[in-house]
Amino acid sequence: MSHLTLKQLRYFTTLARHGHFGRAAEACAISQPALSMQIKELEETLGTALFERTSRKLRLTGFGEIFEERARAILRDVDALGDLARASHDRLVGRLRIGIIPTIAPYLLPRIIADLTGAFPGLDIQVRETMTPKLAQELSDGLLDTAIVALPVSDPAFVEVPILTETFVLVRHLEQAEQPVPDRDKLREMRLLLLEEGHCFRDQALSFCSIPSGRPREGLDGSSLSTLVQMVGAGIGVTFIPEMAVAVETRSARVSIARFDDPQPSRTIGMIWRRSNPLAAQLDDIAQTFLKAARGWQDISAANHATAP
Amino acid sequence: MSHLTLKQLRYFTTLARHGHFGRAAEACAISQPALSMQIKELEETLGTALFERTSRKLRLTGFGEIFEERARAILRDVDALGDLARASHDRLVGRLRIGIIPTIAPYLLPRIIADLTGAFPGLDIQVRETMTPKLAQELSDGLLDTAIVALPVSDPAFVEVPILTETFVLVRHLEQAEQPVPDRDKLREMRLLLLEEGHCFRDQALSFCSIPSGRPREGLDGSSLSTLVQMVGAGIGVTFIPEMAVAVETRSARVSIARFDDPQPSRTIGMIWRRSNPLAAQLDDIAQTFLKAARGWQDISAANHATAP
DNA sequence: AATGGGACATAAGGAAAACTTATCGAAAAA
DNA sequence: TTTTTCGATAAGTTTTCCTTATGTCCCATT
């Protein structure tokens, strides 16, 4: 026995509406025998007559009426599903699982989410915050759709799109505010407080100071920029933080900020996703959204800094 | 652009479950390229990727997950619809519109409905009570599925199945109880009260008395057997009623019942339906149900009469 | 009663869709 | 490297589906 097809349901509902094979066939844009055969096939598949073919009059059977109602419901659902798919060409739908590193999450995330929900209403955004290697792994495993990290990641499986460049500033104790900004050689002699192993920001800071990242250091490691800044405020040492963190982190500590002359230390923040992800176009859309928004983020950041006490 | 097909949805959900073209194809009992092509076709129709084909791993896209859920829902509905149809082979489903003539409705209908709901649970029974010509018309027009009338109707478009034979009894005033039962010739000289034009029972009574049914009569016509019996009780004349009506109608009137010697007046009650109705098998089932139940109906009727005062 | 026309079913052949096997290419595993 | 795995592609065949032409039945007309 053959199977029910959507074509049969479409033909059936049209015939039910018209009550006339010839006209229904015309409405279906097929010939009358083609319609007859499909209906016959449908009735045989069901094992039940749907129409009562009396001379000159075509009538739905009792079951036919029930069948029509349910067939229409199914066709509605199918069409709706097709529409949904077609709507998801340009508009991102459903769930977006986004990963972000901890050294930018607290400062950027609120704005990122605000921009995303603004640009893609109805999008279900899920955020995961952890360090780059883990994000990369989860991205590979399909647990994430995209991640916001420091570039480059240099994984050939990922697409990388730069979003913004952020400079690092030196955080010293408030009492050192008037001292000259140290150069790299001086820095190496100071007690540099850094994030624990695994944070890319740690490596970036070490790299700026030309310190090999593998070597064990006698310095104390913090688990967040906040902690580091508090430690600096306590007079334990100096540290770096990204420009965007300044406004938030230096507000409640006895620290001062110093900016380096060119070449300033900096890192590029960007978005990555699987090269194989078919939503490349939409993800690129998102990246562009961020790119445009990023100027705003930095301006606000700068403004915050300017008005900070 | 091509159209969505159920086949594609089935293949898709299988592939989504297995996450592997080869095994999914096996599960679908087709070759792997056939599955690949259908999935590709589906994705092109939708204009959206459903799977992310990374090397060695097959993963649903975000939209794919949404799509899977809805596709499964549709397939469930379709399968349920098929099952419903298959279940309606032997079991009558949905609505049964049944017509019945007024001269049996009051006595038989409660039992008919009880028997039907017993034998076909879940059946939605709708009853229409009117005279035979109107029933026949409505049956022809598809407003009724079947009718219970006096046979024969002799319409070649209808199937007729006899259910039971009911005899007519003479209803006279209580004071005439001891008088001999009149023969047909005597009857013609009495004042015979009959139902108004259109009731088949009227014609059947006239026929028994060998009176042409077309001729205008000076008798008073009643619109129901109840009325006629009450008129008899008031001493206005005599009338016939069917055996089954005796118990109900003679309870509250000053009348007596007389039965004729053979050949007793009688009529055959039967069920009719459109010959073209594809539910012939089920309707025949119902007729058989009535046929079996009819013995019970008549017994109860006789018992009622025996115990009547 | 014969005839004409409307309406659906059936028949036969051809176009389109779907499936098959065979093969390719890329990526992972050995 | 070579081998294996897995999905895509190619080519050819089967099946499905649709077309036109024709048949059959029933009603309406004469």
Quaternary structure type? homodimer
* Coarse structural class of chain A: alpha/beta
Number of helices of chain A: 11
Helix content of chain A: 40-55%
Shape of chain A: rod-shaped
Specify the CATH class of the largest domain in chain A: Alpha Beta
**Low-confidence parts of chain A lasting 5 or more residues at pLDDT below 50?**
302-309
CATH domain fold name of the largest domain in chain A = D-Maltodextrin-Binding Protein, domain 2
**Averaging pLDDT over every residue of chain A, what do you get?**
84
List the secondary-structure elements of chain A in sequence, H or E: HHHEEHEHEHEEHEHEHEHEEH
- Gross CATH architecture of the largest domain in chain A: 3-Layer(aba) Sandwich
Major β-sheet of chain A, in short? 9 strands, mixed
- Measured by DSSP, the beta-strand proportion of chain A falls in 15-25%
**In total, how many beta strands of chain A?**
11
Count of spatially separate domains of chain A: 3
Largest interface: A-B, 48 and 48 residues
Per CATH, the superfamily of the largest domain in chain A is Periplasmic binding protein-like II
Summarize, please.
The structure is a homodimer of 309-residue chains. By secondary structure, the first copy, chain A, is α/β, with parallel strands linked by helices.
